[in-house]
Amino acid sequence: MTGNAVDPGRIGRRDLLRMAGVTGAALGLGACSGGTLSGGGDGGATATASASASSTGGGGGGAARTIRLGYVSPQTGPLAGFGEADDFILDGVREAVGSGIDVGGTTHPLEIIVRDSQSDPNRAADVAADLISADGIDMMLVSSTPETTNPVSDQCEANGVPCLSTVAPWQPWFIGRGGDPTSGEGFAFTYHFFWGLEDIIAVFLDMWSQVDNNGVVGALWPNDGDGNAWSDAALGFPPPLQEAGYTIIDPGRYENASEDFSAQIAAMRDGGAEIVTGVPIPPDFTTFWNQAAQQGLRPRIASVGKALLFPSSVEALGELGDGVSTEVWWSPEHPFASSLTGTSCRDLANGYQESTGRQWTQPIGFVHALFEVAADTFRRAGDVDDPQAIVDALAATELDTIVGPLAWGSGPVPNVAKTPLVGGQWGPGESGAAYDLTIVSNSEQPDIPVAGELRPL
What are 229-234's contacts with CB under 8 Å, separation 24+? Predict the structure, then answer.
């Protein structure tokens, strides 16, 4: 486990409210004119709006209380691109939820308490502990890379708090937290949705088959949750790539925030690598790619996870960004709609661009989906004061969301629901954008349309 578990003996706000029999609502999340997203003193924020706390009947006649959601993501630091759209999504959730969520005939206002992991696993564990013990949350939502999802999920598992996470391949989330995919056993309170390494490997292989190459792959795998999972000799990239006939040049794990990639570049260049792959953080790939150009490494293909997801990361490469490729987990072309608002992927992306003046980014859909599932879970839970009832409702989810259908009944392992994955390539942009992302591989998801084929660099 990453981070220290909260002492079960510490009494949080939720426990105090229950012991005191408090039934009034605090600030709820609604579409009222007073709604704000206010910054917190610890780098977090609370999305609140005034809302009625009166019972609407049903549910045994109990009075409403505010449902409290914690939300943790990397909003600053090297992974900040993952949290770029958070404020936009929270504003949309506030409007959609309105006066609250109906649970058993009682409308409960909703409060979302937002915390920044600062791209640091220890910080993620600390803010999760505070959300559990001090803020008394009823459910945790967490997004973006194992460095955030895993320590937060571990805190929730240790303290019996329902938790839903996303935007980390299922292997580093499940196996990285001690789960055994062969045992059939899972976690009690923590659930996850995203794709797996088997999916991104299939997507990358399909993209690579579109460009003539010598089958030599240089790997840039860091010493972190993703890098260790992707490089795993049994469960990561090596076995399927070798089975497909590729030769891997693996210079070994390196530390994030490295400033010199000369050793990795020399190994790939001298080994004749015509393909580069890996899962570096965005600043590290910028450093690596610039140094590669200077030191004579010129592959025909560069398919890289994590670092090439965001327009800003590709723009940082300048002219060297043209033709790099990556996985695509969500886009305006995906044929899904929100269960919370009815909004299509295209309309959600356009709304973000119109509201912020920035290009759409992939986490938009998945952060929105977290709140879709949370709202649906509480509507079915029946009792907002019973963590087991909440987690049982979460486990029983069958919901069509803006990232596709989600259900935790079909694996690939307990606690995990998979989402579709395609592949894309960055090229010259339109409408003032430096680069646009074009889907070029849908071999695993033919319902998501392609708009071209992979071009060599």
Answer: 229/146, 229/169, 229/171, 229/172, 229/175, 229/176, 229/197, 230/197, 230/278, 230/279, 230/305, 232/171
Bridge partners (DSSP) of residue 275 are: 217, 301
- The residues facing 238 across adjacent strands are none
Q: Minimal CA–CA distance to 48: which of 94, 88, 86, 115? A: 94
Residue 89 has φ and ψ, to the nearest 5°, of -65, -45
Q: Are 175 and 234 in contact (CB under 8 A)?
A: no
What whole-number distance in Å separates Cα of residue 218 and Cα of residue 275? 6
What whole-number distance in Å separates Cα of residue 43 and Cα of residue 34?
Answer: 22
- Residues with Cβ within 8 Å of residue 132, at least 6 apart in sequence: 6, 12, 70, 140, 155, 156, 159, 161
Quote the pLDDT of residue 63: 63
Using only C-alpha atoms, the chain has a radius of gyration, in whole angstroms, of 22
Tokens of 325: 């490729």
In the chain, CATH 3.40.50.2300 covers 13-195+332-417, 197-308
**Could you please report the per-residue DSSP string of 267-311?**
HHHHTT-SEEEE---HHHHHHHHHHHHHTT---SEEEESSTTSSH
The pLDDT score that the predictor gives to residue 323 is 98
Helix H or strand E encompassing 91: helix 86-97
**Which pTM does this prediction carry?**
0.86
> In the β-sheet with 216-220, what is the strand arrangement from edge to edge?
247-249, 216-220, 275-278, 301-304, 325-328, 422-428, 435-441
| Structure confidence at residue 244 (pLDDT) | 98
- Domain 197-308 - what CATH class? alpha beta
On whether the CB atoms of residues 85 and 352 are closer than 8 A, the answer is yes
CATH entry 3.40.50.300 includes domain 13-195+332-417: no
Q: Mean pLDDT of residues grouped by 10 in the chain (457 residues)?
A: 38 36 28 30 44 34 81 96 95 91 93 97 98 97 97 98 98 96 94 97 98 98 95 95 98 96 98 98 97 97 96 94 98 97 96 95 97 97 95 97 94 95 95 92 95 97
Distance CA 54, CA 74 (A): 36
Q: Sign of the C-alpha dihedral, residues 225, 231, 234, 238?
A: positive
